Amino acid sequence: MNKIFESGLAGTLELYDEIASDEEFSAIGNSFFERSYFGTRILILAANFGDEITLAGNMILNLATARAEIFVAYSAEKSPTSKNIHALKILGVSRDKIVYAADLRWLIVELRPNIIFCVEAETPAHKNLSAAFEKTLGEILREMPDYRPEVYKKFAVATALNAPPDFYAPNLLSVKHPKIGVTDGYDFDAIDRANFSWAERVRFPVPEACRKTLLKNNPLASAIFAYKKNHWSALRICNSDEIFFERRTDNQAFFAQVSNPAACDFKITGGEISRDKILAFDWQEEVQVRRVVVYGNPLDDSPAKIKIRLTLDNGSLENFYELPSHGLPLVIDTEKIFVRRAEIELVEGGADFGIAEAEFFANADPLRKIAPFIKLIIGKNFFYRWDVPYEVEKIPLGLYKFHVDAPVKITAKSDDKIILSEIFDGSDELILNLGDAKEIALAAEVVGDPNIYDEAVIRRVNDLTQIQLKISQWLDKMRVHKIRKI
Length: 486
Description:
Blueprint: H1 2-22, E1 29-30, E2 41-46, H2 51-65, E3 69-74, H3 82-91, E4 98-100, H4 104-111, E5 115-119, H5 124-143, E6 150-154, H6 157-161, E7 202-205, H7 219-226, H8 234-237, E8 241-247, E9 257-258, E10 278-296, E11 304-312, E12 315-323, E13 329-348, E14 355-361, E15 373-378, E16 381-382, E17 385-389, E18 394-402, E19 408-414, E20 417-424, E21 430-433, E22 439-446, E23 449-461, H9 463-485
Parallel strand pairs: 2-3, 2-5, 3-4, 5-6, 17-23
Antiparallel strand pairs: 1-23, 6-8, 7-8, 9-10, 10-13, 10-14, 11-12, 11-13, 15-16, 15-18, 18-21, 19-20, 19-22, 22-23
């Protein structure tokens, strides 16, 4: 009797499992996934096998699906293993694209990747690779004015490998802000210093196959499992977004004579700091400038007062500014001007004052291979399908914009009835009243550019559906436990 009962229960649970995991919604889409990256070359710089997944697993799958040519390079001098090759094959990278970063300069110059993803300094191996990459790329950018790749850095340990194991939540959640004393191994608060402003992080959507509520049939989880180690890290790495910190490479200062090269070496953290009272940049020919960005010393806890003077053909412009503490950037946008000389002068600062990097850009935004996109948010989370209990009456909607300045029209429909239609700039929250709607289809579209859009669904669920999800996720966890024993 007990065996019959157990068998019947197992079959019922498996049925619940299939229902939960295979349910799809047609009104979910994003223009981000429609772009072809054929002809675009991507370089993933990882320290050890497995780092490529914690660094950019979702983006590898995204870009491989979009037909980009992806190379994965490791700084560890080891031969690829069958596990390593299999893991990358799952994500869409073939064996012949697995290379080594022993000679970074040769690798970058030879491949000339359009987009580079690299680990940020955390573990000793990550620190070595990050420092070598920034030093090498800085030299290349000075020597090759026709090469300006997109660069994205990431704390692959703090925001992925050691992030909260929150995959089995009722809805897929976004990457969390790491915190000292909470995030394992996060002993120094690097976030919100220098170029690592959490509010300015770049957030990319994740592929459809990686959005489900179970790890079953999730290619990112399968790639993690292929390594036969740290299986539970899938619960930390699988989120509704994948985050990076962008570094612009189109700095006009690379063409200048600089009184202290430490302020123009592409290194903001971990590099030398210019402590000169006056820092000067001279160009042989005038250069166009629309934006000036100055980073102070990331270890300076106090703001400083500086004066910036820009010398033009017909005179000069100068003004006083406050340089933020912790090396956070001072960003100055101007009308289009042509500059021959620039000076940054210390007016007042503490003992730890210094300039880590100074940047002069011809445009407020650079040209990018990755196209602009938008994404709907609930709370702080990217969402595609979001389940809420019937007792929830209102939902606060937000909006993430990747290099989109125009406002966005948001429309919500239930049973073909429009329950919300607003023009929204994303600076605040938009409250959606659910009423008695069971399923709501949301559409966001950039005003004036319908080719940039996002679609998502909010679904009301009852207690039985929530119990079913918990059972399905419990079964899913048992599968992972079984894989670990194999």
